[in-house]
Design a protein that fits this description.
Elements (H helix, E strand, L loop, with lengths): L4 E6 L3 E2 L13 E6 L5 E4 L6 E3 L2 H9 L6 E4 L13 E2 L8 H7 L3 E5 L5 H8 L4 E4 L4 H14 L3 H19 L12 E8 L2 E4 L4 H8 L3 E2 L8 E3 L2 H7 L3 E4 L6 H5 L8 H4 L3 E2 L4 H5 L5 H13 L2
Helix pairs in contact: 4-5, 5-11
Length: about 300
Amino acid sequence: MKKSFLLITATLFFISCNQTEPQRLYSGGKLTITDDIGRTVSLSKTPARVISFAPNVTEMIYALQADDKLVGVTAWCNYPPQVREKEVVGDAATANLERILALKPDLAVMVGTKNTPILAKLKALNIPVLVLNPVSLDDISQNIQLLSIVFNKQAAADSLLAVFSATSKKTTSSLEMIPPGKRPKVYAEISSQPLMTAGQLGLVGLLIDRAGGINIMSDVGRDYAVINPEVVIQRRPDIILILHPQTDKKRLSERIGWQNIPAVKNKKVFDDLDLDIILRAGPRSVMGLKELNRIFYEK
């Protein structure tokens, strides 16, 4: 992800964000930020009525203690539990524009690309839109920092990121002593119809690697990929992660040829994981990292 950056522009002067306290970023001027897809977004004041179009964005806003600014969310936003009290506006694909207008938002935050349908619709309504696209733990940290500037929540971000970083370092501190040959081979199943797995570039693949596992599909230079089941049989994973609700360990073990896979033979198939902390690129991703590390090394 291209690292986000910001500029503070004022009528008669320029102030570098590195020299300015976050609480004063909007004073006498305009906050101009570049989002993760290279768009310039300008804000004249701290947003007071924000709509989140992604569950991980919603989690970041709550983690920054800026949820009092949040007036709309998607039906997929389920954490923290109190998010259910917020107005549901659909999602980035099926947004209810009438409901959005009624909420009078002064900022929308979403995850997507320049071609995400809701982006053009919100721009036509003159609603500022900030597009994030976190993939790695570093990306998540950068997005949290960016949102903390938007919401003037630097102190909350500092505390949050300190825990985020400490948890990551503590989880991975002992891995340098484990040679590749001693690390478990891992197959992460994202879908069974079609059969889809995590490649090298997505969050799941990155978490597997950082947690001390060897992704058997690390040679796939994408985030996710549809594969032939024979590939899994041939690569003989030690651990299988079922990261979707379409199947379970029993049905997986009944697939033709899968009975002799080490993970199946040794009962190392996991189908009861908290999917959100592993699939959702947000503040709880370090919990996903910690859980995978526990599974890989039976802590």
